[in-house]
Write a structure and sequence with these properties.
The chain has 191 residues and is mostly helical. The chain has 2 domains: 109 residues; 33 residues, no CATH class. The chain has 4 helices and 2 strands. It has a two-stranded antiparallel ribbon with strand order 1-2. Strand 1 and strand 2 form a beta hairpin. 25% of the residues are buried. Bound molecules: zinc ion. The site of zinc ion has 8 residues, from loops.
């Protein structure tokens, strides 16, 4: 995943999805809390007071989970180094919340994806302590690196003889020490 710039690098997708998921779970839990607080008296009159109490307790747990997920989503942005830890926490909370249909299910799924994104997130900023410039052992721009072939010889003449001299006229290799070309007989300059 490429960095999208900005002074602070943090898992934006994880932050946003966890935040939305946590808010949905919170809304769901609050709606249930209000509904069963209103219905509680009626349920009790039907002998279902215990059922209502259990639902209210579960919704209360949902509120706590939602607040933890929202807090984690905010921490992922403010403290990106804690993203992996909070990602694991959000995954666990979202899975448990999903079993209870928290956040109308979609909120739990969004928080779960956000937690996974936070766990797999890797910061793109360079690690502190790394020296500036090129790492040690990397060659500069001018020097050829190891394994690179040597530059080709400048002349396009055929392979030179043992002395490294070729005839200026016919290109034949001339043995070292010879004063004339063995093929065309031309004098070797400098010999
Ligand atoms: Zn020659």
């Amino acid at each position: 995943m490429q960095s999208r710039g900005g002074p602070v690098d943090y898992p934006r997708g994880a932050h946003i999805l966890s935040l939305i998921g946590g808010i949905l779970i919170l809304i769901d839990a609050i709606v249930v809390l209000i509904a069963f607080a209103v219905l509680g008296t009626a349920l009790a009159s039907f002998g279902l007071g215990a059922f209502g109490a259990i639902i209210i307790a579960l919704a209360g747990i949902g509120v706590v989970f939602a607040l933890l997920i929202i807090f984690g989503a905010l921490r992922i942005k403010s403290q990106p180094t804690s993203a992996h830890t909070w990602g694991i926490v959000i995954i666990l909370l979202a899975l448990i919340s999903f079993l209870g249909g928290g956040g109308f299910y979609i909120g739990s799924i969004l928080a779960l994806i956000g937690g996974i994104l936070a766990v797999v997130w890797k910061p793109t900023a360079p690690a502190p302590g790394q020296p500036y410039g090129q790492p040690y052992g990397q060659p500069g721009m001018g020097a050829p690196g190891p394994g690179m072939p040597p530059p080709p010889p400048p002349s396009m003449t055929p392979m030179a003889g043992a002395g490294g001299v070729t005839c200026a006229y016919c290109g034949t290799a001339i043995p070292a020490g010879s004063k004339f070309c063995p093929k065309c007989g031309a004098a070797v300059p400098g010999a």
